[in-house]
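Appendix B: a complete holo record

For completeness, this appendix reproduces one full record from the ligand-bound portion of the collection. The bound molecule is pyridoxal-5'-phosphate. The inputs are the chain sequence and the ligand SMILES; the output is the full three-dimensional arrangement of the complex, encoded as structure tokens. No fields have been trimmed.
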Amino acid sequence: MSTPPTFASSFLAGGPTHYARASNPTWVDLETALADLEGGGEAVIFGSGMGAISAAAGIAPLGGKVVAPPVAYAGTLGLLQLWDREGRISLATGEMADPADLVWVELPTNPTLEIVDLAAAAAAAHAVGALAIVDATFATPLGIRALDHGADVVVHSVTKYLSGHSDLLLGAAITRSPELATRLRVTRTLGGAIPGPMEAWLALRGLRTFPLRFERACANAAILAARLAEHPAISRVRHLSLPTDPGHELAARQLDMFGAIISIEFVEGLAAAEELCSRVTLWRHVTSLGGVESNLERRRRWSDESLDTPADLVRLSVGIEDVQDLWADLERALAGS
Ligand SMILES: *Cc1c(COP(=O)(O)O)cnc(C)c1O
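The structure of the chain with pyridoxal-5'-phosphate bound, as generated:
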């Protein structure tokens, strides 16, 4: 039933595993489960989402052209910008550069919730000889099986929904290409930034309830987004479930679930955003997302957040609590008490 975590650095010669920097039975259990969730392929887990992202983006050849969205997870853009400054890659944000070596997609983008047609983006990348790599942390494999839409590699911050309890960092890259899987494994083994067996075991345990947690969080998010859209203090709500959302039509076609992240902006701007963050009590004002508990954050409080993200944008990560409790806390905090 539950396989215990394997705490060992070395294994007897002659078995499938020899040294725990290359593999560990607990990793294999998690990798098998993650590959199953993506509908087949090989999963390679890393010590964090960024570990998976740097290994996947590192597939770009030296001097290669990488295309990325103008707003995306700050860590990903930060890494690509660093590599660009160092001359390792040449980074183009926004429009598809022709030709390119690697196209980075985030589905949807953190924190602005922009969405692209993945099959079209992957086809356009392949047409110019580029690999399409998708960070589907927000959509999760329940929202989209990115490899079925033509992605060459899909990466997840397992830290978020897949493990789901805000108690560990872990990442994964999944691919159906044996060559790319080998490349990712070699990067992990030689780079040495490996996940611990305890984290892998906790993630596996969290994964058991992932569909229940994610379904509840998505349902809560859709209810809250609809109410926020009616609230006089809120100037803009982004949630892919809203029929008025610019991404709704595409999301309805492409995704099986609309996700549990909402982003909001305020009639009174920055001050109102900061007040909301300081007044909530059930919601927590912390970074990160995808846990069972609801939290929110004004993303531009971080100096590395893209300046294209509005200064008053607050990202809400909706958890699995009672939705009336969540709404009552938001409503009270928005009313200024
Ligand atoms: C959090 C996050 C990451 C980074 O994952 P870590 O596990 O914190 O390293 C990457 N992409 C997205 C979309 C994220 O939300």
